[in-house]
Write a structure and sequence with these properties.
The structure holds two protein chains of two kinds. By secondary structure, chain A is of the alpha/beta class. In chain A, 35% of the residues lie in helices and 17% in strands. In chain A, helix 1 packs parallel to helix 9, helix 2 (40-50) runs parallel beside helix 3 (62-75) and helix 6 packs across helix 7 (182-198). A five-stranded parallel sheet of chain B has the order 2-1-3-4-5. Classes of the chains: A alpha/beta, B alpha/beta.
């Protein structure tokens, strides 16, 4: 997992171990695949075989998650997956603890079509996250009479994006949906910033770049080029409250950290108070009395999360819209109600 | 042209499973419910109401024609085969039965969502093709009428090509198919003759 997720998980382990009301302590067992896609499954198996651990918190990309699921099935493990993903999965061995499209992409598109216009450009890294998110964006766009001006992908890790930005410069869309990850996204935002500096059609407030996974965790690396990016997520720094599972704490650097912390806290609450709970399967844990209060759906294993749309201003995310928590709907088969603005109790 | 998948409305859709009570059924039902479908299991008899369901999952290992209230190849809903034994005889049965998608047993943690999408898409294509073939067969059967109509029009002093074009023009004016226009012309001439006979 990434650094932010690891930090959140370890904060929660410390919190659990210092909490006298929970009848358990956690001992973290760590393995680092270092982003090497072929190392995830062997290292996950190593954890499950060489230690008593049954619950693994980890993975960032969907690709790595799909790699470890067969190992979890074979060895009886559970994965707590604390980063946003593209939906359309419901493994019996996974808790999906960050947002799926009805909690990030769809609210972001609603906001964008009503605020910036209907002409959009789609881009992403060449793997499942970008492909599926952009397919969904096309579908939503068709429903609202939007016009997809272009769609272009970049190999993971590639920083060769001049052609992509040239195309955007020529097409002048109302907004760009960016599903690029890592160095490709950094290079893209740099080149877009240069375009904004030289072409008034891309000046301040025009043709914003959208993201469904950018958090404070990456703002430092991206620097000034991140200014103006609009992102959707369950939480951004400064918002109160944070996620279900974070109760009483908001000292997180990003929603990646908050969701990993919430994962470990939710696990502790499921395990606490039931003898031998560590031997129970995930469906059995979620069937325990009181489990429904933890915030994980026993039907989909997805969590209920608030939705915030925020824009990078002066190096931090400033919220534009904040909505009440909604349940994850990984297959988008539930009726889509109108999101309710988050009402805060004024002290 | 690339085909865009039409994603069916699966929330609240009705899935019927024909399989004896088994861990495979539990795993299948879990996945279906996670996707958002309502699930009912039947064994060994299928109720007649299965015709109104949205999807049927059937156990190929034990299935036989008499279990289904329709002739092989004529399932009125998308069907998904649950395959355990890969014995050729069972595969032959399933090819004759005509399923739209398949899942291998044991049913595990995934696979159901893609089977639902493939089954719906294949079923829709199958029904669409069957309708098109019916239509083409009917038009093929009307070839004789077209020949008669062209001959009748040509008999009024036109070349065969001119008569053909006139028939096409009439079909467009009447907003009917070429064959239906031919049918009208043949019928009207026949009517005139009958009038003459009576006259």
């Amino acid at each position: 997992m990434g650094r932010a997720s690891r930090e959140g998980a370890l904060k929660a382990v410390e919190q659990v171990n210092g909490d006298a009301t929970l009848d358990l302590v956690f001992r973290p067992v760590e393995r680092d695949p270092g982003g090497d896609i072929d190392a995830y499954a062997p290292l996950c198996e190593d954890i499950l075989k060489s230690s008593g651990a049954r619950h693994v918190v980890g993975c960032t990309t969907s690709w790595s998650r799909k790699e470890v699921i067969p190992s979890l099935e074979r060895l009886g493990g559970v994965l707590w997956y604390p980063t946003p993903y593209e939906g359309f999965e419901c493994s019996d061995r996974v808790v999906y603890a960050h947002a799926c499209p009805n909690q990030h992409l769809l609210p972001l598109l609603d906001h964008s079509f009503s605020t910036y216009g209907r002409r959009l450009y789609l881009t992403g890294s060449n793997y499942i996250w970008g492909w599926e998110m952009n397919r969904l964006a096309r579908e939503v766009s068709a429903q609202v009479g939007g016009d997809v001006l272009g769609e272009r992908y970049v190999p993971i890790g590639s920083t060769d994006i001049a052609r992509l930005v040239d195309e955007i410069a020529a097409l002048k869309p109302d907004f760009v949906l960016n599903q690029l990850i890592g160095p490709s996204q950094y290079a893209f935002l740099e080149t877009m910033a240069a375009l904004r500096a030289r072409d008034p059609a891309f000046g301040e407030g025009r043709c914003p770049v959208l993201s469904c996974n950018m958090t404070e965790a990456e703002l430092g690396v991206i620097g000034a080029a991140a200014e103006g990016v609009i992102s959707a997520g369950p939480w951004f720094r400064g918002l109160t409250p944070a996620l279900s599972g974070n109760e009483g704490r908001e000292d997180f650097g990003s929603s990646f950290e908050a969701a990993a912390h919430a994962s470990v806290m939710m696990l502790a609450r499921l395990l606490s108070g039931t003898p031998d709970a560590e031997t129970l399967s995930l469906p059995d844990l979620l069937a325990l009395p009181g489990a429904s209060a933890v915030g994980i759906s026993a039907r989909t294993h997805h969590v209920t999360l608030p939705v915030t749309i925020a824009q990078v201003r002066d190096g931090a995310f400033a919220p534009i819209k904040t909505y009440e928590p909604i349940a994850g709907d990984p297959y988008l088969t539930r009726p889509r109600g109108t999101l309710q603005p988050l009402l805060r109790v004024v002290p | 042209m690339r085909r865009r998948l039409r994603i069916p409305d699966l929330g609240g859709a009705r899935a019927v499973i024909l399989h004896r009570p088994h861990a495979n059924v539990t795993a299948l039902a879990r996945q279906l419910e996670a996707v958002g479908l309502d699930v009912e299991c039947h064994w060994p008899e299928l109720p007649v109401s299965v015709r109104a369901a949205d999807y049927l999952f059937l156990d190929v290992d034990t299935a036989y024609d008499e279990q289904f209230p329709w002739a092989p190849g004529e399932a009125p809903l998308p069907t998904v085969a649950l395959i355990g034994s890969e014995a050729p005889g069972r595969i032959e049965w399933l090819m004759n039965f005509g399923v739209d998608a398949q899942l291998l047993k044991p049913v595990g943690d995934n696979g159901v969502y893609s089977a639902l999408l493939i089954a719906r898409s294949t079923f829709d294509a199958r029904i669409g093709l069957a309708g098109e073939i019916d239509n083409l067969r009917r038009r093929l059967g009307q070839r004789q009428t077209v020949v008669q109509a062209v001959a009748l029009l040509a008999a009024r002093g036109k070349t065969e090509n001119e008569a053909y074009e006139q028939l096409r023009g009439l079909a467009m004016a009447w907003r009917v198919s070429f064959e239906a226009a031919a049918d009208r012309i043949v019928a009207s001439v026949r009517g005139d003759r009958e009038d003459e006979d009576h006259g």
